[in-house]
């Protein structure tokens, strides 16, 4: 009897130890795939590599002595601050109008703002070229009917600022809207009962309570602005207006990898610091109060200006959301970009060309879907395991594992791609010039999408459900399949679809990592900007991408599996 009990004890102990070993192996694998590329990037900037160790600061000295780097840095700061201010103004203003006033057309306004956000910024920049470019729709109308030449140059830093601001302000809108919705209406009512006016209530109650959310999202927008690539490339590179990401991309062609690594490291640190500061500020600057009733925001009357302001907002959204999409659709069906839009000049041949005739475009669409599916599946499985270990176990390094897997959220995609070059170009991981370097990079970028969507659901699972399953004799695997997975399935599906959408809309990762035969939609769009195919072909590709993205977003909304932040 004693012998059998001892055997059972040792078998149980061995099981626990084997599980811990598996968790450690899993953690090491995650660190290799997520942290190792950044270590190689930073190490190469200081002279360390797989070929040897030769500590030097020459690359950093070269960065600080290079006048072009200084100019690109100034441009980056100018663009980032301008985008932050403009998107902040638009997002906060619209959030207040929609959530705190009696403005008309609220549902339409929300829908148009959301459409502005989900359309990739690179595609929006193409649309604005078709509207404001030298041969653009608006340029032609001004010249033909008013005899006025369009003086605004879309190919400029100002063009980058406008397009990126229109793409990012919905983030500010959504964040501030959530903050406004969560304010308990009793605070405002109490202030009004005490004799406070609308201005005083706004500046002493509403604004202080939403300020942490405002500052946090503006810091995040600033970090995204300094790392933008696609828009800056299509609108800045033709006129040699560089920001840091496009300068790094241009300089890679010269083959000075240490210089690129040093510049990338500085941008990585800056962007990462801003990202973590925004999260830290949001955590520390939260107001605590006891909610005595459900949030019931008061709405303020706009008075006589209600109709005028409502139509003004609709006109703005029509210009910034509807017209660019109409421009893309119109150009996609033209026989040749620049000719008059009339029935005889419309054709389906552009779609026939990219979907059935042109080998590169067919291959690029197939690759994007295939790479996206593989990456989405892998990131969903890995993200689910990481989330479970972090939220439901006592593993000593569980938070370190989650932190490591989330590093890419704070990193510009351009820098992630350059880090991948340093990590996977040499032994023991030679993935460069293969499709796997793109897929692996997609996976590490997409894992945080899954974790973010699963963590909230995982925290709501009552542990008594797992305990009841174990008491009933179910194994860990059975409990995981029957209890955990069904509870977090919406988060898994959302993360999967978001990962697929990322594969369709991203540009810098593919542009920097692809080789012949491994082109993606991002590469196709980026290369076509100066190709002989013209804007009509670019627009056809863009329209296909928009449709696929809208299908993904509709799936998320339809099945109620999106947990918007």
Describe this structure in words.
It holds the Pfam family BPD_transp_1. It contains 24 helices and two strands. It has helices at 2-34, 36-45, 58-65, 67-100, 106-118, 121-132, 137-146, 157-181, 185-193, 198-226, 230-236, 244-252, 257-284, 306-332, 349-357, 359-392, 398-405, 413-424, 435-459, 463-471, 476-505, 508-513, 521-528, 535-558, and strands at 48-49, 52-53. The protein has 565 residues and is mostly helical. The protein has a two-stranded antiparallel sheet with strand order 1-2. 74% of the residues lie in helices and 1% in strands. It has a domain at 346-565: Orthogonal Bundle (MetI-like fold).
Write out key terms for the chains shown.
mainly alpha, disordered C terminus, 565 residues, 2 strands, 74% helix, 24 helices, globular, MetI-like fold, two-stranded antiparallel ribbon
Assign the CATH superfamily of the domain at 346-565: MetI-like
Across the major sheet, the strand order is: 1-2
Find the CATH topology of the domain at 346-565: MetI-like fold
CATH architect. name of the domain at 346-565: Orthogonal Bundle
Measured on Cα atoms, how large is the radius of gyration? 26 Å
Please give the CATH class of the domain at 346-565: Mainly Alpha
Count of beta strands: 2
Count the helices. How many? Answer: 24
The helix content is over 70%
Q: Which structural class is indicated by helix and strand composition?
A: mainly alpha
The N- and C-terminal alpha carbons lie at a distance of 57 Å
| Range of strand content | under 5%
**Helix-strand pattern:** HHEEHHHHHHHHHHHHHHHHHHHHHH
The unreliable regions are 288-294, 561-565
For the biggest sheet, the summary is: 2 strands, antiparallel
Protein name: Iron ABC transporter permease
Organism: Clostridium oceanicum
Family: Belongs to the binding-protein-dependent transport system permease family.
Keywords: Cell inner membrane, Cell membrane, Membrane, Transmembrane, Transmembrane helix, Transport
């Amino acid at each position: 009897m004693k012998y059998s009990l001892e055997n059972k004890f040792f078998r149980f102990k061995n099981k626990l130890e084997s599980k811990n070993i598996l968790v450690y192996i899993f953690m090491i694998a995650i660190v290799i795939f997520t942290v190792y590329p950044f270590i190689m990037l930073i190490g190469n900037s200081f002279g360390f590599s797989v070929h040897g160790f030769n500590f030097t600061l020459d690359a950093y000295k070269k960065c600080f002595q290079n006048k072009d780097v200084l100019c690109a840095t100034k441009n980056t700061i100018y663009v980032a601050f301008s985008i932050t201010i403009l998107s902040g103004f638009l997002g906060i203003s619209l959030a207040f109008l929609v959530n705190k006033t009696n403005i008309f057309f609220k549902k339409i306004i929300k829908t148009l703002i959301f459409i502005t956000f989900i359309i990739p910024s690179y595609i929006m920049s193409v649309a604005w070229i078709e509207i404001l470019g030298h041969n653009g729709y608006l340029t032609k109308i001004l010249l033909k009917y008013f005899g006025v030449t369009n003086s605004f140059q879309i190919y400029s830093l100002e063009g980058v600022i406008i397009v990126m601001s229109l793409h990012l302000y919905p983030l500010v809108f959504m964040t501030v809207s959530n903050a406004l919705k969560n304010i308990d209406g009793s605070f405002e009512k109490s202030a009004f009962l005490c004799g406070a006016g609308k201005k005083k209530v706004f500046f002493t109650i509403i604004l202080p309570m939403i300020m942490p959310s405002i500052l946090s999202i503006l810091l995040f927008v600033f970090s995204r602005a300094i790392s933008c690539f696609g828009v800056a490339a299509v609108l800045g590179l033709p006129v040699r207006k560089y920001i840091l990401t496009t300068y790094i991309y241009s300089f890679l062609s010269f083959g000075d990898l240490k210089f690129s690594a040093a510049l990338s490291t500085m941008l990585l640190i800056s962007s990462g610091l801003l990202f973590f500061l925004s999260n830290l500020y949001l955590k520390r600057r939260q107001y605590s109060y006891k909610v005595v009733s459900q949030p019931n925001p008061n709405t303020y009357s706009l008075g006589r200006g209600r109709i005028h302001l409502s139509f003004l907002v609709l006109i703005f959204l029509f210009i910034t959301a509807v017209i660019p999409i109409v421009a893309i659709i119109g150009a996609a069906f033209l026989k040749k970009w620049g000719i008059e839009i009339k029935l005889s000049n419309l054709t389906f041949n552009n779609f026939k060309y990219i979907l059935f005739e042109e080998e590169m475009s067919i291959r690029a669409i197939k690759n994007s879907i295939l790479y996206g599916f593989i990456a989405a599946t892998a990131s969903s499985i890995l993200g689910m395991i990481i989330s479970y270990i972090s939220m439901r176990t006592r593993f000593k390094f569980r938070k370190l594992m989650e932190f490591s897997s989330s590093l890419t959220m704070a990193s510009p995609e351009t820098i992630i791609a350059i880090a991948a070059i340093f990590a996977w170009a040499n032994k023991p991981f030679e993935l460069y010039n293969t499709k796997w370097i793109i897929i692996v990079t997609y996976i590490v970028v997409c894992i945080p999408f899954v974790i973010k969507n699963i963590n909230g659901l995982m925290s709501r699972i009552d542990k008594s459900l797992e305990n009841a399953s174990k008491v009933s004799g179910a194994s860990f695997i059975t409990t995981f399949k029957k209890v955990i997975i069904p509870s977090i399935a919406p988060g898994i599906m959302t993360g999967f679809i978001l990962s697929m959408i990322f594969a369709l809309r991203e540009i810098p990762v593919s542009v920097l990592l692809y080789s012949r035969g491994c082109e993606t939609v991002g590469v196709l769009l980026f290369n076509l900007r100066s190709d002989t195919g013209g804007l009509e072909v670019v627009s056809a590709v863009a329209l296909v991408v928009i449709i696929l993205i809208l299908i993904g977003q509709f799936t998320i909304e339809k099945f109620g599996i999106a947990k918007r932040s």
